[in-house]
């Protein structure tokens, strides 16, 4: 085909790396794909080209190969594959997560980083209004972990990631763009004081309405204290959704449950191996599959909710007259986007639909935080010694203060040269982050075992960085498309977990041996727990406000 003739070359290891998967699609569809692909990689090597339906799919399962994709050839792999389902869901990539790499993606991401996810904003969003943003950030970035942050480091859950989706769009070896916004922890954090789009005008930094991370976590803890059994599966996504929407649209969203339900559908559709996506050239398969129709329905339902949120905002902004809405006290992310739309100051104009996609991205992108929290709680329940140690440390740090203190928490060869093999343009690339985080070569001992002590100072693995520098642990991805919500996600996860461990001991009702807790995984675009997590809270440190 045309695409094949234009094939660039990627350095790959020797071996039988091209496998037709059509005959054994059950490997992928019937089991968890990341686990199935890890097993295939053990037999066939860390770089395999699978043919999943008609789609050439390069599966990458070693840190060297992951580095090739996400660092050496980051530009070539800087787009994500847009299957028919994803195209329907995102109006052809009008959002940030699935926007094709280029100027438009760069500018949208920059707006999100600067106006919502940067350290400065994160502090505003999460704070009780007390700490200085820059100091707060610097301490988080370079400072040695404080005593309070130490227990949280113990709780790093290895291999959070599922499959990182990338697509080979451009040629390999293209020059990088020095003006890239890589994430809130990088250059963007330092540059994040200017208005995106080059306007140079500083956006108002007013105090936000209501509470941020601290307040939402406190509300969850009060709810836990009032119940004999606490349903983590319901509570954690609610916590994350409320915190994120407060930051994005200024308040809790009254349509939160509808958005969560639609998000659930999107995640299943986006991560599923839909026939329409695997045989894109077949109209019959496309029609029979129904996935595109379901994706369009999801997209429409989300748009209806966001329509009403946007209308309310516009009304408030009109009434306030100063363009800020809410009586001049608040400027949330949606207002920033609406103003950019109205005054056209973003070099690449955004329309109202784009704005809705971006807001939903923020809502959807943060979902991972609740997945991580639920896994962390489940692992701690199964490993009472780790739980005991973590809870003891959190209580030592915070019990005398009566609550988690945000400021204290914040203070914390290429063997591929042998063969050069053509990789067709348009190939889907799956970096199996899940497999990397469980690889015996990088995590000796029992790599599947939850052992937070791995990350303690005297262990060889303590220096492994989860911010995209060490490719055996890439929960937030790496390179240009790395997660821009990392500081926000980490702050939320750490704060919520510290609160849960500070105030309560936890038990599983009716389960005598915690080691028997069900840990089955479910497949979706993120690696989630299959079954819920109903836990009994036993109050240890009074919850403030009760
Ligand atoms: C613990 C929490 C989180 C984890 C583990 C996580 C993980 C990830 C991963 C693995 C990627 C793909 C990176 C790649 O392709 O290299 C990603 C992308 C993204 N995440 Fe997160 N994330 C988290 C929290 C958040 C939050 C809180 C937000 C927003 C509020 C967010 C917004 C996004 C966005 C917009 C992208 C797409 C970036 C782009 O394509 O340019 N994430 N995240």
TrEMBL record:
Cofactor(s) it depends on = heme
Q: Which Pfam families match?
A: p450 (PF00067)
Q: Which GO MF term does the entry hold, naming one? A: metal ion binding
Q: Which UniProt keywords apply?
A: Heme, Iron, Metal-binding, Monooxygenase, Oxidoreductase, Signal
Annotated region described as Disordered, given as residue ranges: 176-209
> Basic residues compositional bias: what residue ranges?
188-209
Chain sites annotated for binding heme: 483
Family from the record: Belongs to the cytochrome P450 family.
Protein name as catalogued: Cytochrome P450
The lineage is:
Eukaryota, Viridiplantae, Streptophyta, Embryophyta, Tracheophyta
């Amino acid at each position: 085909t045309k695409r094949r003739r234009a094939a660039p070359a990627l350095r790959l290891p020797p071996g039988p790396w091209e496998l037709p998967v059509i005959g054994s699609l059950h490997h992928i569809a019937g089991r968890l794909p990341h686990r199935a692909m890890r097993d295939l990689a053990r037999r066939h090597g860390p770089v395999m080209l699978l043919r999943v339906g008609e789609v050439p799919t390069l599966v990458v399962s070693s840190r060297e190969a992951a580095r090739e994709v996400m660092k050496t050839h980051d530009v070539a792999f800087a787009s994500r594959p847009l299957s028919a389902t994803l195209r329907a869901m995102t109006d052809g990539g009008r959002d940030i997560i699935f926007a094709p790499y280029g100027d438009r993606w760069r500018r949208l991401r920059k707006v999100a980083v600067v106006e919502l996810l940067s350290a400065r904003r994160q502090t505003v969003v999460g704070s009780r209004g007390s700490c200085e943003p820059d100091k707060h950030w610097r301490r988080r970035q370079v400072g040695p972990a404080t005593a309070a942050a130490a227990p949280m480091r113990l709780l790093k859950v290895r291999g959070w990631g599922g499959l990182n989706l990338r697509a080979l769009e451009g040629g390999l070896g293209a020059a990088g763009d020095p003006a890239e916004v890589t994430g809130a922890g990088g250059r963007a954090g330092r540059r994040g004081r200017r208005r995106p789009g080059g306007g140079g005008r500083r956006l108002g930094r007013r105090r936000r309405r209501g509470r941020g991370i601290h307040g939402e976590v406190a509300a969850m803890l009060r709810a836990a204290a009032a119940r004999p059994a606490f349903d983590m599966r319901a509570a954690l996504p609610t916590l994350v959704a409320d915190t994120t929407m407060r930051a994005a649209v200024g308040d809790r969203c009254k349509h939160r449950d509808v958005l969560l339900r639609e998000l659930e559908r999107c995640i299943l559709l986006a991560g599923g191996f839909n026939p329409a996506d695997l045989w894109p050239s077949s109209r019959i398969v496309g029609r029979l599959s129904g996935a595109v129709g379901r994706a369009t329905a999801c997209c429409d339902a989300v748009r209806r909710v966001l329509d009403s949120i946007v209308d309310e905002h516009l009304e408030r902004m009109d009434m306030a007259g100063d363009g800020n809405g809410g009586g001049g006290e608040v400027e949330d992310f949606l207002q920033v986007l609406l103003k950019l739309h109205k005054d056209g100051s973003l070099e690449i104009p955004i329309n109202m639909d784009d704005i809705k996609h971006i807001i939903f991205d923020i809502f959807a992108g943060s979902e991972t935080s609740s997945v991580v929290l639920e896994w962390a709680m489940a692992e701690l329940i199964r490993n009472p010694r780790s739980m005991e140690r973590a809870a003891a440390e959190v209580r030592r740090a915070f019990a005398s203060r009566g609550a988690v203190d945000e400021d204290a928490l914040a203070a914390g060869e290429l063997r591929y040269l042998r063969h050069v093999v053509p990789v067709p343009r348009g190939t889907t690339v799956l970096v199996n982050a899940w497999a990397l985080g469980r690889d015996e070569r990088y995590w000796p001992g029992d790599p599947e075992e939850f052992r937070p002590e791995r990350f303690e100072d005297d262990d060889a693995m303590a220096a492994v960085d989860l911010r995209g520098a060490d490719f055996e642990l890439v929960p937030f991805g790496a390179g240009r498309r790395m997660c821009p919500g990392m500081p926000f996600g980490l702050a939320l996860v750490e704060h919520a977990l510290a609160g849960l461990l500070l105030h309560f001991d936890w038990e599983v009702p009716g389960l005598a041996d915690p080691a028997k807790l069900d840990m089955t995984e479910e497949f979706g675009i993120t690696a989630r727990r299959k079954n819920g997590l109903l836990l009994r809270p036993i109050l240890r440190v009074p919850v403030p406000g009760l």
